[in-house]
Amino acid sequence: MTDTFSAFDISSVPLPGPDAVAPEPYRGIYAMPMYVTVPTPDLAASADFWVRGLGFIDFFTTPGHVTHLRRWAFQDVLLVPGVRPADAPMMTVGFSCVLNQIDQIAAACEALVPGSTTGPRLMPWNTIELEVRTPENLRVIMTAARPYDPDSTEAAFLRAQGITAPEE
Questions:
Q1: What span, in angstroms and rounded, lies between the C-alpha atoms of 39 and 42?
Q2: 121 within 8 A of 129, measured Cβ to Cβ
Q3: Of 3, 92, 145, 157, which one has the fewest beta carbons inside 10 Å?
Q4: Tell me: the pLDDT tens digits for 16-42?
């Protein structure tokens, strides 16, 4: 990876750290560069889980047709009427959060749907990840970056992949 450069200035994700503050939900109108469409048999119940459990806002709802959910800028989910798959979908979707949100999200999701979370777990790419199974049977990964320590096992793992920190 030799043609990369730091572009954190275009991201809504704050720099990692134990005191990182999550941005407020983004309420602006923009052309969505990416979004996830999730079919559900119960729009209201699904929206409730995503809002109270995962920290999304109900950006707007067209009753019976779509509920547009959002967290930070470019974290958009469209809930639409549909059938819940019996098996977990092949797809997983991930959303960034900050370190102090991981335990809050786990507790909120577990209070709403006991057994819906796995983790959190430390990943070799220097994040902490929480897996959440939503009422629609979607696998959601909430991921929080950890502060970069150039002497850590995670930094060595990243360097071995050809990924260096912008400071290096």
A1: 9
A2: yes
A3: 3
A4: 888 889 989 999 999 888 999 999 999
